[in-house]
Design goal:
Length: about 550
């Protein structure tokens, strides 16, 4: 392997980890799996008084979500991550378990890249790596504990088996492996992948790659294995007979309840989501169509493109749409774009048109990578809840009196939706030996509006993380503000920033403070010009003022 191939291969896991470190917090969509992983690590799996211990300790009994989700992913992350966490410390547990998921998805992408090289040649594999590395969404979400991203590695491994092989028996075996892998992903993690499984199976049957005599036994074997895995484990953790993805299918497909989260037009995936996921506009507008049109690449492209687009087309019937629901097709469509890019690039010496096209394609990769970098920076500014919790813990620890032993904090809905997790609340496990003078933090996540309007409810808290401080009843002072991304702003010399006015005199913590420093330095260098993120207050850090206490300034 040439040095450039090694570098491109290593760049895939490296950039996934970079995205993790730049944006280490999570959002509400990831909460079930990240909280479940925490609970398994901290409380284990009891064998006595199971219901009583699980219901009193595990988060999903208090916050079950719209539909029950599988514990298979959290069990794997906790089991593999436990010895690593024991070695480096529990305060890094969230990074470690997310990193493990990211590395699994990176491994799947590397297997896919290797099979691209085996089927289409090394130069095509290089173009695939370059195009994949310049896509923001796959790298950013690869370590995020969404059910989709647990399934993503399996679907990528399945797609890696669909590239042609000269040996017919090997090709049949690969199709069986793809069907089996997709069956497990469907039964355990995401029921809508049944559409992709059907699309790939029908394509294989139509092109005589497989027969029903192969498909049916393979499906039954992997489907039965999946049920024997998910039903006992999930029935144990939920304490009732359960196949989670059957519930998910009933909720989304039969009841149509997913529409409560928003409805998008039928063409959303094709006109908005896919172009965003693939990032490079040439991939969707030029390269993929060219690969299908050109006789030199058509046969290689069809097994990757046809099932992918059929899946997206059928799934577009579902009213509720999100880009993450179709992440699975990013690798095969990127490989198709790489086929066209390589075909054009290898003919750059034959005509001026191919040379110009090669230069444009190369430039588009650089531009896409630059845009992806900007998107990473912007996306890292969207987790004010996680930042606020981290900053408040540091503030309380550094400024509290020595005799303070316990602090009680209320975290509001926005805080919990934008980064507050059990890992952040408890960076040390309950039985971990700590200094006797270390503060114990207790947390409350009450959401009931009636309770929140009761003045006596707020009396028990020392600190509050709140989006709207006017809704917090009683004598409170703002000790800091965490800002979040609110768009792009252009400031001319002599003009003031709207975000500075909104935050007023409150001390700004977290990424917002860093953005301000960069903005001030940039304006000084440019004579007052600035174009970049506009930040606005998202989470206010409030401290309870006791009777007779005057407001106090928070020092740097």
């Amino acid at each position: 392997m040439a040095a450039i191939d090694l570098l491109l291969s290593l760049a895939i896991p490296a950039l996934i980890l970079v995205h993790l470190l730049v944006a280490p917090y999570t959002k509400v969509e990831e909460s079930f799996n990240i909280q479940a992983t925490h609970d398994i690590l901290v409380y284990g799996t009891p064998t006595k008084n199971v219901y009583q211990r699980l219901s009193s300790q595990y988060d999903h009994f208090d916050f079950p979500g719209a539909v029950p989700r599988t514990f298979i992913g959290p069990v794997l992350l906790a089991g593999i991550g436990q010895p690593i966490i024991a070695l480096v410390g529990f305060q890094y547990a969230q990074l470690i378990v997310r990193g493990l998921l990211g590395l699994f998805n990176a491994l799947a992408l590397l297997v896919f890249e290797r099979n691209v090289e085996s089927a289409f040649g090394r130069s095509t594999a290089r173009w695939y790596a370059l195009l994949q590395l310049s896509q923001f969404h796959v790298l950013f979400y690869a370590s995020r504990t969404l059910p989709n991203m647990f399934a993503f590695g399996l679907t990528t491994l399945a797609f890696s088996q669909l590239m042609g092989h000269p040996n017919e028996r090997t090709q049949v075996w690969r199709y069986r492996l793809a069907i089996g892998t997709l069956t497990m992903a469907t039964a355990v993690f995401r029921s809508e992948l049944a559409i992709l499984l059907t699309a790939i199976t029908l394509y294989g049957l139509a092109n005589s790659h497989i027969s029903l005599g192969i498909v049916i036994p393979t499906f039954l074997l992997f489907f039965t294995t999946s049920l024997l895995l998910t039903i006992p484990i999930d029935s144990y953790f939920w304490q009732k007979p359960l196949w989670p993805e059957l519930w998910g299918f009933y909720y989304n497909a039969i009841l149509g309840s997913s529409s409560e989260w928003g409805v998008s037009p039928w063409h959303y995936y094709f006109t908005s989501a896919l172009p965003k996921i693939l990032m490079n506009p040439l991939s969707t507008v030029v390269l993929i169509p060219y690969a299908l049109w050109n006789t030199g690449t058509r046969k290689q492209a069809q097994p990757l493109v046809v099932p992918s687009l059929l899946f997206v087309a059928i799934y577009s019937i579902q009213p509720h749409k999100e880009a993450r629901f179709i992440f699975y097709v990013a690798p095969p469509l990127t490989a198709t774009a790489a086929l066209a890019a390589n075909y054009i690039f290898t003919r750059r010496a034959k005509s001026a048109a191919f040379l110009l096209a090669s230069v444009i394609i190369g430039g588009s990769v650089l531009v896409s990578f630059g845009i992806s970098t900007v998107m990473l920076v912007i996306s890292s500014l969207n987790y004010p809840g996680g930042e606020a919790l981290s900053e408040l813990r540091k503030l309380v620890t550094s400024s509290s009196s020595p005799d303070l032993q316990t602090v009680t904090i209320h975290t509001d809905v926005l805080s919990c939706m934008t980064g507050v997790t059990l890992f952040g609340q408890h960076p040390y496990p309950p039985n971990d030996p700590r200094p006797s003078n270390e503060i114990t933090f207790n947390y409350d996540k009450t959401e009931d509006e009636h309770t929140l309007r009761n003045p006596s409810f707020w009396e028990k808290f020392d600190y509050v993380l709140a989006e709207d401080p006017t809704k917090v009843i009683g004598p409170w002072e703002t000790v800091g503000v965490v800002e979040g991304f609110a768009g792009i702003e252009l400031i001319r010399p002599g003009a003031s920033s709207k975000s500075d006015v909104e935050s007023g005199q409150d001390r700004v913590f977290g990424r917002g403070a860093l953005v301000r420093k960069v903005k001030d330095a940039t304006k000084e260098l440019t004579g007052g010009w600035w174009i970049g993120p506009r930040m606005e207050p998202k989470i206010h850090m409030l401290r309870k003022m006791r009777e007779g206490e005057a407001r106090r300034a928070v020092t740097e």
